[in-house]
Amino acid sequence: MSYSRALTLAFFLGPAMTLVILFFVLPVIVTLYASFTDLRNWNIQRGLTEFVGTYNYEILGYMAFNNPKVKYAVITTIVFVAATLFINVVGGLTLAILTFFLEERVSTGYRLLWLLPRMTPVAVYSLLWYYFFHSSDLGTLNKVLLSLGLISEPIDWKLWHLPVGTWMILVFVNGLVGVSFGMIVFYSAIKSLPWEYIAAARVDGAGNLTLVRRIILPQLRWHLVFVTVWQLLSLLTTYAHIFLLYQWGTIDRLWGQTWSLFVFTTAFLGDQRQGLAAAAATVLVAIGAVLGLITLRIMGFQRLVTRPRGEL
User: Fold this and answer.
1) Which of 123, 148, 165, 251 is the most exposed place for a label (fewest CB within 10 A)?
2) Rounded distance, CA 43 to CA 38, Å?
3) Residue 50 maps to a domain
4) How many CA atoms lie within 13 A of 115 on its CB side?
């Protein structure tokens, strides 16, 4: 590589690489370091000097099989990520396709409506669902069902067929936020397709379903990979909405805790065992990296980045 080319790459990639190192690589290194210490109650001096080896990881492994709080957090995380990921990707793609076939004026208003959950502050958005799923007759959902005569008394939704009710709330609340992201990405991709593709298909008599199957979906391979991997990693680490619903009693304390929320509560609430929380966070980073790579492989990322044969 020539000096001028290396200088050009450093000029364009340097700022981005600096930010990645400062805000992603270094925090991972610090977290990994803390996971081998007995850091508690933010006693930094103790955390820097008292190494405990793999003790935190051993405790974490034991808790995963014997402590209901941790064991249920693993199960809830798997269900939450899988169900919400499906809604975010498939729901976002469906909304994008539907809005594409609407008139632009109607489509714009419809997309803005779906963006409201993402634009609403976390506390306000969570408070809305707190009142919606409230266990008394003041809860919006209970009030509607009571007025329609579908139920005779209020339902405590977090305990409804436990843990199904709590999982339903988690997936529903977070799914509405994530589905808008997929909708925007997919809609932008569809609108950027060459107009000639759509016109030629229409001239050949293609209906909407044929247009989606033969023209639109094949052109969205890159975007499907991006949205799937992005949402997968995002869901593994999200906890803001879940934490507020957890604190307010909207979801069950045992079945409503994901692994990322377990990391947060271990570090900042109760005994504040930052060393143990760091070990749990390190495990989460490792799992996220492995799942991300597996997803890229399953979705054919290598084929997408391979240089095509011949001339285009």
Assistant:
1) 148
2) 9
3) no
4) 12
Q: Report CA-CA distances (Å) from 119 to 38, 115, 175, 309.
A: 40, 6, 14, 44
Q: How far apart are CA 115 and CA 120, in angstroms?
A: 9
How far apart are the C-alpha atoms of 154 and 134, rounded to whole Å? 9
SS3 101: coil
- Whether residue 197 is contained in a domain is answered as yes
- Angle of helix 164-191 versus helix 104-119 axis, rounded to 10: 140
301: in domain: yes
Q: Is the dihedral of CA 103, 93, 177, 167 positive or negative?
A: positive
Residues 6+ apart with CB under 8 A from 264: 239, 243, 277
pLDDT in tens, 51-63: 888 999 999 999 9
Residue type at 168 in one-letter notation: M
Looking at residue 310, its pLDDT comes to 52
For 168, the domain range is 67-305
- Rounded to whole angstroms, the Cα distance separating 134 from 50 reads 46
pTM of the shown model: 0.88
Helix (H, G, I), strand (E, B) or coil at 248: coil
Q: Can you tell me which residue has the tokens 């990645």?
A: 20
Query: In which residue are the tokens 């919006």 written?
Result: 140
- Full DSSP string of 250-295: SS-TTTT--HHHHHHHHHHSTT--HHHHHHHHHHHHHHHHHHHHHH
Q: How confident is the model at residue 196 (pLDDT cuts 50, 70, 90)?
A: confident
What are the tokens at 11?
């000029």
Using an 8 Å Cβ cutoff, are 99 and 250 in contact? no
Could you tell me if residue 257 is inside a domain? yes
* Residue 51 DSSP label: B
Q: What is the largest CA-CA distance in the chain?
A: 78
Question: CATH code at 261?
Answer: 1.10.3720.10
Cα–Cα–Cα angle for 194, 195, 198, rounded to 5 degrees: 105
